[in-house]
Amino acid sequence: MTPLATLILAAGKGTRMRSGRAKVLHEILGEPMLAYPLATAAALEPAQIVVVVGHQADEIRERCGGAGARFVVQEPQLGSGHAAQVALREMTEFKGDVLVLYGDGPLVRPETLQALRESHAESGAAITLLAMRLADPTGYGRVLQKGKKGSVKAIREERDASAAEKRVNLVHSGVLIAGAGVLRGLLDRLRPENDQGEYYLTDVVEIAVSDRLEVSAVEAADSGELEGINTKAELARAAARLRDRINERHMEAGVTLASPESAWIGPRVRIGADTVIGSNVEIGGETSIGEACTVETGSVIVDARMGNAVHVKPGCVIRESTVEDGVSIGPMAHLRPETVLRQGARVGNFVEIKKSEIGPGSKVNHLTYIGDATIGAGVNVGAGTITCNYDGEGKHRTIIEDGAFIGSNTQLVAPVTVGRGAYVGSGSTITKDVPAGSLAVGRGKQRIIEGWAERRRRKD
Ligand code: UD1
Ligand code: CA
Question: Which terminus of the chain has a smaller tally of CB atoms within 10 A, N or C?
Fold first, then answer.
């Protein structure tokens, strides 16, 4: 097949989003909108991907770079046709077909683009565009056809369309494919003679037709796949569609979703068979969850690696953490970045852990803060324990060795080590290392004053 380059136009500000953020940075399932067309483009394995960015170019590059795409900046933004010109200027060497996608079309699937590519190769048309039929075509460029089915005369933007043209319900999806040489020649002849004074990419159709070149339209089977996002309401609708698509895939692979319409799972998340995901759960980023796990209602998991048979109880927040097999977490626990829970560890309710390792089988079950700590195997951390890791200037580590027992309501003032098998008495403030096998008690001695209560009552 003819070599392919994919252009993604994403420089528009997206005025209709009414936002300070560039449109393609708005998130869907925790990923910027642009990540979706980028992944779709990459699935076609083109010779190159060029993304045209404008507003907040640096942030876009930072969040979407690494996908093997080249980013070019369009400044100022003079329309989609101008954006395509800017991109083609960057790829003067390229001789194959150019597939144009819009950054605000996250739903399009690689299969659909592959079919368009094949149809373009077969028909020999100069330009092939992907059209769709909509009950309400408002806002889209109308595809005006010639007598022959699939043969296109022009694309007319809504604001430049006559009343009769506005009634046409076949619209342009934004996706088109054309030979690089042909496209370059047509783009050079664009004029900003329209209601917005912009260079419209869609005008290449009329110019091609005036040159007696054939432009053909392929009508997409599923118009839902090609809806563009211009408003927050459309963003929410697209998110729901992508959610359903992703959730279907997980269910087919053996994941149980208690409430598929309320499970928001990002496109990069991997989940093993027989895992059960409860309602109102969000899982995003580069998360992987093993087999036979349970994630209960209201939990949020981002960039976590979890083994098999992990139980996440309701209301947990887990970020950038590693959780080994058989661990139980929550309800309402908070694992912050760089937390590692070793096999069979148990973390209970109202526990916050940050940058710490909890060893195999160790328990941190109630109302506790563990920060910058290394906890060995078989340790019991009592209720209300706090690692005092911050002295106002720097962070310090707490080390608790295997088999140690930390009594309830203990403060461990770091840097400090509790040795293997040692005991810390409840209510202690531990400021010095506790040797292995010893008992440390660091609290006021209890006094008993006999008859005190009776005397006080008499005084009143
Ligand atoms: C565009 C099409 C319309 C089509 C619709 C499908 C044009 C002129 N019209 O309309 O026929 O039905 O998409 O969703 O293309 N962009 C740039 N630089 C610019 C301007 C735009 O990169 O200077 C990018 C935008 O980021 C966006 C795309 O081009 O991804 C389309 O621009 P947008 O303003 O959203 O066009 P629509 O009005 O939606
Ligand atoms: Ca658009």
Answer: C
